[in-house]
């Protein structure tokens, strides 16, 4: 392959790297991609100047080449600042000092440059600048060597190629004429320098690829951390919500317990008033029956007082209580009321809210006619499903009876508070039927 072909391959490769960096700059809009694009562009400018150096005066071509190298070094130092320094660090301060020296060289060279004759001062400044450029390269190598990631390693290799290329250029083209440095040697050295430059630009371009990869990994990690934090926050909110719900449930349970006690304590005061009236009439008419009436009334109110102690009572105790309660009603109404109990013994140990039967019997007496020729028949039975059935015949009073709210609503509320199945009510075919769930002792204990 001829020198011209190699030169063309080299130039095309630099253009390809320039376009690649420019596209990445346009896509990502990050400063680092712009700096790499300018870095490659500065070398394209140098190549253009080198190709046209023979058509320009020697002093002019030298000035333009040195200005291009000054711009290149400023951009290179900015790359070092972005990649390897942070605000306030000593390395950042020294890098800024180096940039200032490059600016001084560029401006000073422009001032002392003379287009028509050799200028010793300008030549000395040029040699000093080349030494400064080598020191800048070595500084970049040192900064990159302090890091261990792929970006730093590639930048280290690229800076090393830059340093070797600078040393070779300084030895062959800026120093004395060596006896062995023939034209062929210069041509070969120029190819080596171009190869090093190509390797340098390739390493710097690969830096972008790895830098992008590191940014994506960092973003993924940050996203994972953010998602984990969000998950943690959601879990924390969920725990707080559950704790709040638990606290609300506890308050509701306490409220329900208070309401349940209040419901259990609601007894129709008219019952006591009517019972005392009945007792008053019995004292004169039948002292013995009055004594029995007092005993049953005492049993009824003893049960009423104890009913407030527990949310549930056994069916056996409730039936014993309703028999005493029925005795009081029968004493008052005579044959106008008839209570029939047919409960399977296996269900006597089951439980239900206390005073349930009393409320149902009282409700039946309150809303129906109770007369000897029209007796109110109330039956209490159990069905095969383990439920208690309370039934009475319907013979409603002609005038509407005002209700104080104690009755079926009270029973439904108690069952709802206890978390049990609700009673069912059937009103039709001349019968009023209430079916009550019975709670097993083990279930209530659980």
TrEMBL record:
Pfam families of this UniProt entry?
Answer: 7TMR-DISM_7TM (PF07695), His_kinase (PF06580)
User: 7TM-DISM receptor extracellular domain: from which residue to which, for each copy?
Assistant: 7-208
The membrane spanning regions, by residue number, are 6-25, 62-84, 96-113, 125-145, 152-173, 185-211
List the residue ranges forming a coiled coil, or say none.
Answer: 232-261
* Keyword tags: Coiled coil, Membrane, Transmembrane, Transmembrane helix
* Top-rank lineage group of the source organism: Bacteria
Where does the record place the Signal transduction histidine kinase internal region domain?
259-334
Protein name stated in the entry? Histidine kinase
Species of origin reads Nibrella saemangeumensis
Q: What is the lineage of its organism?
A: Bacteria, Pseudomonadati, Bacteroidota, Cytophagia, Cytophagales
